[in-house]
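New to this. Explain these tokens.
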Amino acid sequence: MRERTQVLIAGGGPAGTTAATLLAQQGIDVVLLERTRFPRYHIGESLLPSLLPILDIMGARERVESHGFIRKSGAFYGWSGQEWALNFDDPGRPATHSFQVIRSEFDHLLLDHARHQGADVREETQVRHIAMPKDRATSASWTGRDGRTGQIDFTHLIDATGRAGILAARHLHTRRVHDVFRNVAAWGYWRGTTPLPDAPAGAIGVFSLPEAGWLWAIPLHDGTLSVGLVTDKRSFNHAKNRRGSIEAVYEEALARCPLLARMLDGAQRVSALKTEADYSYTSEAFCGPGYYLAGDAACFLDPLLSTGVHLAMYSGLLSAAAIATVVRGETDEETARRFYQTTYQNAYERLLILVGAFYRIHDGRDAYFRKAQTLSHRDQQGLRLHESFLNIITGAEDLHDAQHHTLDSLYDTLRNPLPGHQANGLGGHGTSHMLPLPTTPDHAAAGLYLSLTPHPTLRPTP
């Protein structure tokens, strides 16, 4: 069985469905192949308010709002002896709330939305191989659950296959693991918990552990609380050898956090523990002839700032805009790819630095864990640190002193809160608009910026 489409999307998570929706809405022929049958389980339940504008662009906001997810109006931190709340209704934020979602339901909503907008969505169909004659992606072979096989030719491919990464990890071998954020996460679900008394409604709770990482607590609309431990691999393996099991390591960590222990007093864990190695990685390039890497297929980041779903949908939006502009003949492929590479890489690097800054600024008793989260010299190679400096810190007049120690200078600057912000978290730096959409000429890349009306497309700067 052989067929053809303008755009093939491999993967039906938030990156793939965002791109599929936006392309189909513009009348572009798009086929989405997803290897599983939705709904399916996925971690990454706490969403940022900066996602809401993307849901608006997709026309999916109402479906998500009406589903019944917990409305997340902020976050609460208990970190290195400090406690503070972050409210999303503070001035200058992109939205007053976000959501805590059960990802199986959220992702299913987005997949159905893409189908209803005209995308040809095929579940239980796994992409096995991408043909790349003369280094250009041109066709894919797939296998269905019933054993059927086929090939599909395309003009453009969006690889949204997540951490499996069919192109970067399996075909091109261009994925590079960072030395930093080589952590392990273990989590489970609890019932009968007590809310945090001083936290914003629906807030995520984030709590540091002395020397050994941090914990999350995310309320979900089915009445459960997602509770996870994140620690570096060395500490995790040492604790596992000492305590004898992952369950014992997890329970010991919960008991060492008084705020979380009070939330769980009298509660019962109602699920088995899940674990995942939280490697941080990036690809040498996020796009190439005939293809774009979106979401986790391109890069993966520590979960501290809950940025995973936004990076996925952000890249889905950018890739759809780039492809649509090329299909209409309004720019050439190489220019569109330069725009995508620059904007997506900048977003990832900015967040990489902000997460590292959070760990470094709030060292306190977490000295070893903090050190384990420091970007190595190898990690810094290839990062556009001066551009990131200017993107994160506004009003930086002179980078002369930062020529050889840009990252240290950036972290030192981030230690000083912006006017009107408390000296905790990132002190207002980069928290209100961590991922601004490049919708003005001031944010142009390769001479292009993103226009959202009537559909996402790239426009040349004046």
User: Anything to note?
Assistant: The longest helix spans residues 333-361. The CA atoms of residues 211 and 366 lie 4 Å apart. Residues 395-402 have pLDDT under 50 and may be disordered. The longest strand covers residues 149-159.
